[in-house]
Amino acid sequence: MNVLADLTAYLMQRSAPRTVRYGDALHFSGRDLPQPSSLLVPARHGSVRCDVYRPRDADSEPPVYVHFHGGAFIMRYPMMDDFFARFVAAECGAAVVNVDYDVAPQSRFPVAQHQAHDVAAWFAEHGTELGLDGTRIAVGGFSAGGNLAASACLQARDVGSFSPVLQVLGVPSLDVAEAVEAKSSPLATPMISSSLLRLVRRTYFPDPATRMDPYASPLLASDLAVLPPAVVVTGEYDVLRAEGDAYATRLAAAGVEVVHQVTPGADHYLLDGDRSQTRQTLDLITRALARTFNG
């Protein structure tokens, strides 16, 4: 066990509420929605707290979008995506479940991946009890959250637990087995550094053998057929772009419907920049969700 790496991860985790500020400028809509309600969802490795955002003037049983925030499997701070949860709820008329999954150093792979699947499967089975439509469940996330969403879809397919109607993968981390040195960007100082990638491996994926597990590295799954349609958004200069692009290509080759956007001029956090471009990216996601939910 790497004590120094664990301590570094813990300090990053604890500082997240003070250091993560990007969402403040991204409340395009949904500010007027009520505060989310919280509940504990049973899952492997213990209950998972979820914040549920409900749309105004929704159907009697609105569809559900289950969201996993980013943070390199280290930063446990669902509020970083409060702006996104509100935007989806307002624009799509869907209930949004913002999942407070476990992270390193307190937990290691496969805890968060199991929780991602179990939470989404629980809402599919029990949504009606909460006034939600459990038959219309989409999953998605950014960065590490994109990994969890892709993993949840693979698990759901493999065990036949539920059928997501869409997966939204924003700047996803999809190959944690690839050598850190192989992940590159034309930028001199990209947002995701080699040191951060190594930290993730030492803390959340400390066993190199597990990094090739398809639930850890969805890009390495032998078969991507019979997965839900996908929206894959990558950044032109992002260190993780290649694996996101490759996953979109493999999904399409397997017969999965894919909408794939490479955001020009963007690094890993592709919503931090020109507001018109940011709005276009958010609209791309919500249009796909709305079409799927209402199709």
If you had to describe this structure to a student in words, what would you say it looks like?
With 295 residues, the protein is an alpha/beta fold. The chain has one domain (3-294): Alpha/Beta hydrolase fold, catalytic domain (Rossmann fold, 3-Layer(aba) Sandwich). The chain is built from 7 helices and 8 strands; from the N terminus they run αβββαβαβαβαβαβα. It has an 8-stranded mixed sheet, sandwiched between helices. Helix 2 links the parallel strand 3 and strand 4. Helix 1 crosses helix 5, helix 2 (82-92) crosses helix 7 and helix 3 (111-126) packs across helix 4. The model has no long low-confidence stretch (mean pLDDT 94).
Short account of what is shown:
With 295 residues, the chain is of the alpha/beta class. Helix content is 35%, strand content 15%.
- Helix tally? 7
Main beta sheet: 8 strands, mixed
Q: Fill in the CATH topology.
A: Rossmann fold
Going across the major beta sheet, what is the strand order? Answer: 1-2-4-3-5-6-7-8
Give the SSE string. HEEEHEHEHEHEHEH
Question: Helical residue percent?
Answer: 25-40%
CATH class: Alpha Beta
Q: Which structural category do the helix and sheet elements fall into?
A: alpha/beta
